[in-house]
Design a protein that fits this description.
Shape: globular
Number of helices: 1
Number of strands: 10
Order of helices and strands: EEHEEEEEEEE
Bound molecules: zinc ion
């Protein structure tokens, strides 16, 4: 899974706190969007269907033509887990969530700015781009006043 925030020691060797995504031609548009504060997905130029994660061909009409569009960044929590690294059980746990995006797509990301005990299925969340040691990652935070 690209771009997951993490941090732990393994065998006495420090593991980076964040694993930077390996950006290729297929997902350059996505990471360019993150740098611009956006969550971009592919849109089929033939039938306009949106898709995420990226794929070379439209699953509906078979077109290879697509462009990238920015989503609203709004969604809700479909499911989630509390992730703890076995070598750092006392570290702040990560919240890994499946997000139902407003446009009808789903994405895996992290939840930030809330305690694990506060997470609920269907809770509204909004995109936030966070900088982890120079690596920008799309994360989701609880939607609050001023987000609309
Ligand atoms: Zn299509």
């Amino acid at each position: 899974m690209p771009g997951m925030a993490c941090g732990a020691a393994r065998g006495g060797e420090a593991v980076p706190r964040v694993v930077a995504p390996i950006v290729g031609r297929d997902d350059q548009f996505f990471w360019d969007g993150v740098a611009a504060g956006e969550f971009r997905v592919q849109r089929c130029r033939s039938c306009s269907r949106l898709r995420h994660p990226h794929a070379p061909m439209c699953g509906d009409c078979g077109s290879l033509e697509w462009d990238a569009v920015a989503l609203s960044g709004r969604g809700s929590v479909a499911s989630w887990i509390v992730s703890r690294h076995p070598t750092e059980p006392d570290a702040i746990p990560r919240l890994v969530a499946l997000i139902d995006l407003e446009e009808g797509l789903r994405a895996v990301s992290n939840l930030v700015d809330l305690a694990p005990s506060a997470v609920r299925n269907d809770m509204p969340v909004v995109l936030t781009i966070r900088d982890y040691e120079g690596v920008l990652l799309p994360q989701f935070a609880p939607a609050g006043a001023g987000d609309e």
